[in-house]
Amino acid sequence: MTMPLQFSPEVAEARAAGRAIVALESTIITHGMPWPQNVETARLVEDEVRKSGATPATIAVMNGRICVGLSPEDLLALGQARDVMKLSRADLAACLVSGRTGATTVAATMICAALARISVFATGGIGGVHRGAERSFDISADLLELAQTPVTVIAAGAKAILDLPKTLEVLETHGVPVIAYGQDEFPAFWSRSSGLRAPLRMDTAAQIAASHQMRQTLGMAGGQLVANPIPPEAEISREAISPVIECALRDAEALGIHAKAVTPFLLQRIFELTEGRSLQANIALVLNNARLASAIARAMVGAAAA
Ligand code: PSU
Ligand code: MN
Fold it and tell me: Does ligand 1 come within 6 angstroms of the Cβ of 191?
């Protein structure tokens, strides 16, 4: 079998020239944001990466092939499609052999990025340990992927809909470095503050890049999670978002939402309850993550050339 990887012309050129590349996921487009802001945001994020001196590689499975870098037509089709699979590690091969189209979550995007030898990936928030996981056992495969696939993921922390202390515990158990960028506290997606101290802190992209490379040198499996706080002007305070989250969680429980549907349902519900404010925050934090990811990717390329 041949590797079902397909590079866009832009990404192929960047690879050939050894330029900095930042991977971007597609579940945020299909399951994380409503149309048409999903496609608008995806384009803005790609442009932000370009402006920051790196090449964006949005990853998705289109008709049974892993696309690394999407054409504008593919992006539009994905953003409007209704029956797109949500792909994690468990679903990727099945989607490929059935010739279907699927959006990659953090876990599946990491796998595809590593296959394409891309080391840096920007997203919004990673999946984590859901509240009530002691009953539901709902722990995102994103956490286990960070433990085994060598990609540095830049997120705005984990979404505050999750159980953040348990999420940090699972990451620690699996040996994943969790690095808060520029502050001591672990950020909580829509808010800069979670009330929890991050295990590690770094203040420069160069340090984060060096730490990724040191792990490679040491022969360690897995990646790093960089928790980049949302810009102050875009944040929704913890006090403001907490009751909204509680309400969305109650609705999910009442409707019996479970498994893969939980995160998309909660994001949509919080969007409705905040009258779109959560989406504005989500867009701002993804753009912020794209900028930091580009700086880290550039630092990695610079260090490799030195
Ligand atoms: N970040 C966002 N919006 C999203 C997601 C992340 O800002 O929609 C997606 C990611 O693809 C992540 C997934 O991997 O949510 C987590 O899903 P689950 O909780 O089912 O593992
Ligand atoms: Mn889950």
Answer: no
Look up the pTM and report it: 0.97
Catalytic residue (choose from 48, 86, 159, 185): 159
The answer to whether residue 239 is catalytic is no
| Cα three-residue angle 69-39-235, rounded to 5 degrees | 110
Residuewise pLDDT in 10s, the chain (306 residues): 899 999 999 999 999 999 999 999 999 999 999 999 999 999 999 999 999 999 999 999 999 999 999 999 999 999 999 889 999 999 999 999 999 999 999 999 999 999 999 999 999 999 999 999 999 999 999 999 999 999 999 999 998 899 999 999 999 999 999 999 999 999 999 999 999 999 999 999 999 999 999 999 999 999 999 999 999 999 999 999 999 999 999 999 999 998 899 999 999 999 999 999 999 999 999 999 999 999 999 999 987 765
Does residue 246 carry a catalytic annotation? no
Among the four given CATH numbers 3.90.1570.10, 3.40.1790.10, 3.60.15.10, 3.30.70.250, the one describing domain 5-305: 3.40.1790.10
Please state the domain extents for the chain: 5-305
Is 60 exposed, middle or buried, given 0-12, 13-18 or 19+ CB atoms closer than 10 A? buried
